[in-house]
């Protein structure tokens, strides 16, 4: 290793490349729709390309589902519902458990494909996304035969056909969040992954086929917004579960208004990350980095608004700048990489637009010195100082590696500032005083409040938001309820 000469902190090192091998993965040149237990061609014969954001090269051609394909998938799910819903919970659990084991067996392949298709660092795909996806299936496999104990003195019954639409930031994990509780409760599913990251959902379809899950219980349709709209509007879909932007969530809510369809929405966020003067500062700085730069900031619950108590602000900011200089931006398949590629050229332009707005509105920008690859979609980790509550970059979700910093003096002040947003998904509190933590968890309008950590997920813990961050919960015992009705 050798020290870099252009680093103002004079403490950075370069590392030899450590790329993950791709020899073990199996990818097709063309992927079809997964309907009624089989891969079938789209009725209108349309396909689109999925692109590797780190080099802008085409990975595969993927079928685009039309409304006719959606109708076909919904009818397959409806036909499978009676037998699946009446199957004993013990037997349903066996299938779900088998899917979890198959994900584990092919974990390395899933991790590489996730990083290739989505741009996230292989360390995150390997150590977070894939294990968590398997754990969700394991967890809900255990609940499949215990619903009567989960909801005592009630008679839980499945809703029917669930239409599920997932985003591009955690493709495999979001599929697991949606599929596992729906299957455990006896529902059948039509799932649509995001058009920019369809590959791990299609690999999951291969696993579902291999698991012997009865035909029609899970159907996976690829496509863009029109495909998702067709699922939402289909009259035989009983439940919609959507994770994505607030704008699309509002559209879905309006679309199904006046229908008997059930709905859960997990939407955008603008999480507050609060550092008190009594916090363990070095630990908090690591938490700040994890909160905003994890998955390139493509996280709905990212801690994108940093609030630091005035007395330690200069120390925290200096340490944060130094830590940012050590972050490695580059090839997602390199095990040294901390920040991978931005998911799409469209998202990169959105992030750049917000950075320009931040500068125009008087924000002070800080970006580390680092060389970016010549091909692909890249954005340096970005820090904005001297911003206020009225700045656009403080109020609106950027969905990229951009952090705004404000200071505060008192607890009441930071609570007011943290809650001054239309979102209410997440928050973080860093302090050594438990009473302060408990006080803020009661006062912050956020579905999840982390204490002395950030972005920690567990299948046993519920996740969801308030206000424009949506409603309903996924994960934990609470994640079963949206897929059930009670007599």
How would you describe this structure to a colleague?
- This protein has two domains: 30-267 and 469-486, Aldehyde Dehydrogenase, Chain A, domain 1; 272-458, Aldehyde Dehydrogenase, Chain A, domain 2 (3-Layer(aba) Sandwich), CATH 3.40.309.10.
- The radius of gyration is 22 Å and the shape is globular.
- The strands form six sheets. Strands 14-15-16-13-12-18-19 form a seven-stranded mixed beta sheet, with helices on both faces. The chain has a six-stranded mixed beta sheet with strand order 9-8-7-10-11-21, sandwiched between helices.
- The longest helix is centred in the first third of the chain and has 22 residues, at 122-143.
- It has helices at residues 67-86, 89-105, 107-118, 122-143, 147-150, 171-184, 199-211, 225-233, 246-256, 281-293, 313-325, 345-360, 392-395, 411-419, 434-443, and strands at residues 30-31, 33-35, 38-40, 47-52, 57-63, 156-158, 161-165, 188-192, 218-220, 239-243, 262-266, 272-275, 305-309, 364-366, 382-385, 402-408, 423-424, 426-430, 448-451, 466-467, 470-471, 484-486.
- The chain is α/β, with parallel strands linked by helices and 487 residues long.
- The relative contact order is 0.14.
Observed structural traits:
single chain; 487 residues; alpha/beta; Aldehyde Dehydrogenase, Chain A, domain 1; Aldehyde Dehydrogenase, Chain A, domain 2; 2 domains; 7-stranded mixed β-sheet; 6-stranded mixed β-sheet; 15 helices; 38% helix; disordered N terminus
Averaged pLDDT: 96
Shape descriptor = globular
Give me the CATH superfamily of the largest domain. Aldehyde Dehydrogenase, Chain A, domain 1
Global structural class: alpha/beta
Number of strands: 22
CATH class of the largest domain: Alpha Beta
Strand content: 15-25%
- Sheet with the most strands? 7 strands, mixed
Count the DSSP helices.
15
CATH architecture of the largest domain: 3-Layer(aba) Sandwich
CATH topology of the largest domain: Aldehyde Dehydrogenase, Chain A, domain 1
Number of structural units classed as domains: 2
Based on CA atoms alone, the radius of gyration comes out at: 22 Å
**What is the share of helical residues?**
25-40%
Distance between the first and last residues' Cα: 66 Å
């Amino acid at each position: 290793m050798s020290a870099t000469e252009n680093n103002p902190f004079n403490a950075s090192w370069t590392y030899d490349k450590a790329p993950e091998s791709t020899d073990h993965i199996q990818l097709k040149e063309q992927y079809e729709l997964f309907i009624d237990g089989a891969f079938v061609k789209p009725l209108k014969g349309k396909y689109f390309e999925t692109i590797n954001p780190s080099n802008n090269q085409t990975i595969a051609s993927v079928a685009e589902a039309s409304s006719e394909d959606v109708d076909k998938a919904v009818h397959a799910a409806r036909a499978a519902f009676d037998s699946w819903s009446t199957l004993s919970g013990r037997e349903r659990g066996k299938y779900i458990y088998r899917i979890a084991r198959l994900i584990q067996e092919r974990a390395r392949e899933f991790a590489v494909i996730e990083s290739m298709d989505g741009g996230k660092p292989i360390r995150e795909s390997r150590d977070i996304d894939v294990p968590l996806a398997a754990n969700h299936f394991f967890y809900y496999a255990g609940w499949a035969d215990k619903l009567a104990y989960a909801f005592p003195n009630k008679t839980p019954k499945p809703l029917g056909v669930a239409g599920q639409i997932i985003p591009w930031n955690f493709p495999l994990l979001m599929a697991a969040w949606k599929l596992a509780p729906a299957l455990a409760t006896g529902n059948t599913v039509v799932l649509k992954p995001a058009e920019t990251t369809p590959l791990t959902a299609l690999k999951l379809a291969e696993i579902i086929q291999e698991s012997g899950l009865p035909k029609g219980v899970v159907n996976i349709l690829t496509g863009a917004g029109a495909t998702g709209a067709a699922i939402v509007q289909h009259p035989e879909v009983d439940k919609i579960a959507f994770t994505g932007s607030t704008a699309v969530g509002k559209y879905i809510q309006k679309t199904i208004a006046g229908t008997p369809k059930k709905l859960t929405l997990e939407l955008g966020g603008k999480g507050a990350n609060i550092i008190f003067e009594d916090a363990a500062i070095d630990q908090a700085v690591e938490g700040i980095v994890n909160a905003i730069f994890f998955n390139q900031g493509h996280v709905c619950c990212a801690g994108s608004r940093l609030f630091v108590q005035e007395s330690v602000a200069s120390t925290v900011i200096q340490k944060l700048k130094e830590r940012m200089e050590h972050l490695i931006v580059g090839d997602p398949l390199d095990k040294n990489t901390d920040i991978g590629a931005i998911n799409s050229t469209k998202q990169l332009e959105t992030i750049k637009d917000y950075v320009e707005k931040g500068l125009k509105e008087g924000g002070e920008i800080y970006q580390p010195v680092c060389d970016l690859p010549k091909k692909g979609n890249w954005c340096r980790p970005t820090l904005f100082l001297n911003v206020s509550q009225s700045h656009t970059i403080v109020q609106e979700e950027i969905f990229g590696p951009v952090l705004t910093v404000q200071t505060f003096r008192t607890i009441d002040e930071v609570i007011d500032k943290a809650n001054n947003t239309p979102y209410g998904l997440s928050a973080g509190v860093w302090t050594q005083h438990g009473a302060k933590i408990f006080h803020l968890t009661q006062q912050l309008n956020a579905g999840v409040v982390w204490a002395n950590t950030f972005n920690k997920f567990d299948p046993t813990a519920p996740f969801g938001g308030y206000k424009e961050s949506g409603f309903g919960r996924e994960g934990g015992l609470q994640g079963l309820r949206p897929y059930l009705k009670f007599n």
